[in-house]
Amino acid sequence: MQEPEEKKIALELLETEQAYVNRLHLLDQVFYTELMKEAKTGKTVPEEVVKMIFSNISSIYQFHAEFFLPELQKRMEDWNRNPRIGDVIQKLAPFLKMYGEYVKNFDKAVELITAWSEKSPPFQELIADIQKRKVCANLTLQHHMLEPVQRIPRYELLLKDYVRKLPPQSPDRGDAEKALEMIFMVAKHSNAAIAEMERLQNLWVVYQRLGLEDDIVDPSNELIKEGPIQKISTRNNSTSEKYLFLFNNMLLYCVPKVIQVGAEFQVHLRMDVEGMKVRELKDIEFPHTFLVSGKQRTLELQAR
Fold this sequence. Notes:
Blueprint: H1 5-41, H2 47-54, H3 57-77, H4 86-92, H5 99-119, H6 121-131, H7 141-165, H8 173-209, E1 223-233, E2 238-247, E3 250-256, E4 265-272, E5 277-281, E6 289-293, E7 298-302
Antiparallel strand pairs: 1-2, 1-7, 2-3, 3-4, 5-6, 6-7
């Protein structure tokens, strides 16, 4: 008798889950625990840094080791009598939201490992020592840390496959489809969290370049485009270098600072996007010129 296709996929889910729990054990119970023990002696790295590197890995490990893996194991042992996993995955799905924090923190964690490996030789030695152990399979800490980031997409792929292979009359069809939808929503939630964090980080960098002017710093703003521009002076037929930042609600007309201490630019004019008009000019002497007129004033500008 050949195993039905959906059972093969369910077994693959169980096997990959066992391997994944071993990886989480390595991250939480070996790397995190040993680095934390050393940090407490005050010789390698501050405790706070170790906590920042590993984020909420302990909660993720406990959830998979104490709840999800045992549930899956029980279900697969009982498969012949009760061939279904959809309901178990539905219980799992809401908890996967805690991956949002880990995934958001991942790039920062990798940066911290690199920075502190350079700063603290004992920290670097301890990591190297753990990496030499058989359990690490010649892979780096960073490589192991990537595993939780890739786990939710893996669930999604396996479950899609499982739903595809289920016979139409399978008792698990309704549950499995609902579980897939829930996993899909969690993956979207995780990606949206990363995108939002990147947007805010980029916005903050722009605000620093502008000197953190109070009335400009607003987390809800969106930067659409920025770049150098020439300001045309009709009085003496000359141009001077300026810089524009276009947000969803305002255009900032800036002057690059000669001495760049702190801010890179000085805001000369802020124009509301509402009611703003842009008109192209046909000027032989100054090609690529246009007029920007707003409630505040009108500027004659030339693009590259």
